[in-house]
Amino acid sequence: MKNKMISNYLYSLIYQLLITVIPIITLPYTSRVLGDKMIGIDASVMAYVQIFAIFCILNVANYGSRAIATTKSKEQTSQVFWNIYTIQFLASVAVILCYLVFISTVKQNHVYYLIHLFTLGSSLLDISWYFYGKEELKKTTTRNIMVRVVTLICIFLFIKSPDDLWKYILINSLSAFIGQIVLWKFALKDIIFMKPQKSELKNNFWPMIQYFLPLIASQIYLNVNRIILNTFAGPTEVGYYSQASKIVRMVIGFITPLSAVFLPRIANEFDNKNHVQVRRYMDVSASFVCLISFPIIFGLFAIGNDFIALFLGPEFLPSIPVLKILAPSILLVGLANVFGVQLLLATNQPKKYTFSVTLGAIISLIINYIFVGRYGSIATSYAELAAELIGLIIQIYFVYKVIDFSSFLKNMFTYAFFGFIMFLSINYLPALFGWPRTMGLILQIVIGGIVYFALLLVTKNKLFYTLVGKVLSRN
């Protein structure tokens, strides 16, 4: 069991490494070729599209993977799959019809909205939740790697000027659509067609809605905040916010695979009433999030100025404060995945999770609406951070009796202290030694990594030694 969990996380991590490396290559290129205004238009259009996409998938990712994880036979798995996917399919068709009505009323950027029909089509076909539930992440990882590599190649071949924004949108949406088709080829080898049961459709629909509500709250506030930002400050400010947010979300991608690995496992252990094992998973998961998050957060504080200048170009220097404001959300989102997704959702407590996310979303929208006209992307960044923090605090209140809270706090402050020491060791080096920007950035990253891992080694950090031991044993 443990080897499979480690294997699944490594597959997820391989994919996250890929989708981290690819933006490192494409973001500087697209930022310079498309420019801040076109990047902002793309982000503004995508904000509307993602709101529709949310209603297509109904958060099947969490509900579906949990349901598949608890099945015992091929027939049962197939029946559960078709029961759940039927709901997803019908919802997606209804949403796409509503989207067609919506774009018929849109006067600006009409062609971009039409192209995004492929984006909604990929949501209709998305069955990655099935493979997460079966804990077969190798197939989804392989598919995703193929899609990302093809997307990367096409971007460099076809995107040459701001007028190519429509091509950029087409490449991304069409590649996602084709990638979902590939997954169906794998799935149909493992499952058999079984007629959806009407009674089960009803039984699945309402619990699925409960899992869907927190997704509505969390995703809609992010997208509505962008729409508000575009309305009151314009697409250029959206571009500044969007590019910094992409960097932060790219980093968060290293942490969120934990949910895909732990959620079906925790759901299974919880159903078997093995609460001791659930608590162990929580301790490991929360500690791992802290171990990874703090050096990245303090690292972004130290290198943020030079990183934005080199990575996105001088046109995006206003993204620097946005990046630093959003940096702590790496930890907040990571821990919310632990306490909210991995625990509250996996143990069938979606109402508590929904409440935490919804309250944070409401406060975020209020903050953004009041201050965005004066402070632009800065206000939107603080609004997002406030939502993540408030949601996490509420989730911790709900779960603190389940987890070893004193151990969690001790580990969190330990990794925070190590991250702060790392920050002090690298923040002033370029100015002190007069290093050129590129060389200074590379040396800061290398030295910072050495300092942080040296602290883990010297203090004989238990989690770090365990992870290293697991990796070495696989070799």
TrEMBL record:
It is found in: Cell membrane. This is Flippase. It comes from Carnobacterium divergens (Lactobacillus divergens). The chain crosses the membrane at residues 9-29, 41-61, 82-105, 111-132, 144-159, 165-184, 205-222, 247-267, 288-313, 325-346, 353-372, 378-400, 412-433, 439-458. InterPro entries: Poly_Biosynth_Transport, Polysacc_synth. It is a multi-pass membrane protein. Keywords: Cell membrane, Membrane, Transmembrane, Transmembrane helix. The keyword Membrane applies.
